[in-house]
Amino acid sequence: MTQLALITGASGGIGQAVAMQLAQQDIHCVLVSRDAEKLHKLHSTLTNSHILEADVTDAQSTQQLWQQVLPRMAYRIYWCIVWAILILEHYTKPL
Q1: 29 phi, psi to nearest 5 deg
Q2: pLDDT computed for residue 63 by the predictor
Protein backbone atom coordinates (compact mmCIF):
# COMPACT_ATOMS: atom_id res chain seq x y z
CA MET A 1 0.00 0.00 0.00
CA THR A 2 1.29 3.43 -0.93
CA GLN A 3 1.75 5.72 2.04
CA LEU A 4 0.82 9.38 1.80
CA ALA A 5 1.73 12.26 4.08
CA LEU A 6 -0.16 15.56 3.96
CA ILE A 7 2.29 18.13 5.29
CA THR A 8 1.11 21.64 6.10
CA GLY A 9 3.73 24.33 6.45
CA ALA A 10 5.89 22.38 4.01
CA SER A 11 7.64 25.38 2.47
CA GLY A 12 10.13 25.75 5.30
CA GLY A 13 11.33 24.86 8.77
CA ILE A 14 9.94 21.76 10.43
CA GLY A 15 7.45 21.05 7.63
CA GLN A 16 10.16 21.04 4.99
CA ALA A 17 12.42 18.84 7.13
CA VAL A 18 9.57 16.37 7.71
CA ALA A 19 8.81 16.25 3.98
CA MET A 20 12.42 15.53 3.14
CA GLN A 21 12.64 12.74 5.75
CA LEU A 22 9.40 11.11 4.63
CA ALA A 23 10.36 11.32 0.96
CA GLN A 24 13.59 9.46 1.77
CA GLN A 25 11.38 6.67 3.16
CA ASP A 26 9.46 6.47 -0.16
CA ILE A 27 6.34 8.07 1.31
CA HIS A 28 4.42 10.22 -1.17
CA CYS A 29 4.26 13.78 0.19
CA VAL A 30 1.46 16.25 -0.45
CA LEU A 31 3.13 19.57 0.31
CA VAL A 32 0.83 22.34 1.55
CA SER A 33 1.77 25.97 2.16
CA ARG A 34 0.80 29.55 1.39
CA ASP A 35 4.14 30.18 -0.34
CA ALA A 36 3.81 28.78 -3.86
CA GLU A 37 7.36 29.71 -4.88
CA LYS A 38 8.92 27.79 -1.98
CA LEU A 39 6.54 24.87 -2.56
CA HIS A 40 7.63 24.59 -6.19
CA LYS A 41 11.30 24.74 -5.15
CA LEU A 42 10.85 21.90 -2.63
CA HIS A 43 8.70 19.90 -5.07
CA SER A 44 11.50 20.07 -7.64
CA THR A 45 13.85 18.32 -5.18
CA LEU A 46 11.39 15.58 -4.16
CA THR A 47 10.44 13.14 -6.89
CA ASN A 48 7.60 11.62 -4.88
CA SER A 49 5.53 14.71 -4.09
CA HIS A 50 2.54 16.83 -5.07
CA ILE A 51 1.83 20.44 -4.11
CA LEU A 52 -1.29 22.27 -2.97
CA GLU A 53 -1.27 25.96 -2.17
CA ALA A 54 -3.45 26.67 0.87
CA ASP A 55 -3.55 28.74 4.05
CA VAL A 56 -4.62 26.43 6.88
CA THR A 57 -5.23 29.42 9.16
CA ASP A 58 -8.11 30.45 6.87
CA ALA A 59 -11.34 28.42 7.12
CA GLN A 60 -12.32 28.80 3.46
CA SER A 61 -8.84 27.85 2.25
CA THR A 62 -8.82 24.82 4.56
CA GLN A 63 -12.23 23.73 3.30
CA GLN A 64 -10.99 23.95 -0.31
CA LEU A 65 -7.93 21.93 0.67
CA TRP A 66 -10.15 19.17 2.11
CA GLN A 67 -12.29 19.18 -1.03
CA GLN A 68 -9.15 18.53 -3.08
CA VAL A 69 -7.68 15.89 -0.76
CA LEU A 70 -10.64 13.83 0.51
CA PRO A 71 -11.70 12.36 -2.87
CA ARG A 72 -8.16 11.02 -3.32
CA MET A 73 -7.89 9.32 0.08
CA ALA A 74 -7.16 5.87 -1.30
CA TYR A 75 -3.90 6.05 0.64
CA ARG A 76 -2.94 5.69 4.25
CA ILE A 77 -2.49 9.28 5.40
CA TYR A 78 -0.08 10.56 7.99
CA TRP A 79 -0.82 14.06 9.28
CA CYS A 80 2.08 16.34 9.95
CA ILE A 81 0.49 19.58 11.01
CA VAL A 82 3.38 21.83 11.85
CA TRP A 83 1.43 24.75 13.30
CA ALA A 84 -0.31 22.42 15.75
CA ILE A 85 3.04 21.09 16.95
CA LEU A 86 4.31 24.62 17.49
CA ILE A 87 1.21 25.65 19.40
CA LEU A 88 1.38 22.54 21.58
CA GLU A 89 5.05 23.21 22.30
CA HIS A 90 4.26 26.81 23.29
CA TYR A 91 1.43 25.91 25.67
CA THR A 92 3.17 22.96 27.33
CA LYS A 93 6.22 24.91 28.52
CA PRO A 94 6.38 25.42 32.31
CA LEU A 95 5.46 28.90 33.53
Answers
A1: -110, 125
A2: 85
Q: Tell me 70's DSSP state.
A: G
Q: What is the domain range of residue 26?
A: 3-91
Q: What's the number of domains the chain is made of?
A: 1
For 24-76, what is each residue's pLDDT tens digit?
988 888 899 999 999 999 999 998 888 889 888 888 888 888 888 776 654 44
CATH number, domain of 40, equals 3.40.50.720
Rounded-to-integer distance, Cα 88 and Cα 93, Å: 9
C-alpha to C-alpha distance for 79 and 21, rounded to whole angstroms = 14
Instruction: Strands of the chain (E only): list them.
Output: 3-8, 28-33, 49-53, 76-81
Could you give the CA distance from residue 13 to residue 78 in angstroms, rounded to a whole number? 18
